[in-house]
């Protein structure tokens, strides 16, 4: 039996993960952003808001595949959430840490396509301000952390690299979709 297919979009804040995911969903409704469990405050769109107790229960059960802290919140990728996401389509997981990618690839049985979405720091700053983020300084610190993460893992393998300054979300989505379908031999949407 073949493994289910999932998609990981890695990149700094404002590199286009949300825009590319929306373009993927418009191209084929099976693509759906994986809603990580978020414990904390702030933006709730795109997350399953949870409590510290829920996170502890998942950890006790061994169901937290990866968790990280950023912006004063905890973000978790959990096995039950992924099970639900795979049941309805192709989950698109947004990550900004290579350790998170490794934990996901090693910790959940699926065929994971790894896509690097990149933009320069000045673009992150501009996009963050344009979308009205009140924490642009924190986003720029996260951009720097992502750059340092990449520099610490120079030989990390990417199935696809996309410069989002030069490539529109719709084109990025088409490239990702075509590559994913080439893996399975299925016809593109």
Automatic annotation (TrEMBL):
Pfam families attached to this UniProt entry: CPT
Protein name according to UniProt: Guanylate kinase
Organism annotation: Wenjunlia tyrosinilytica
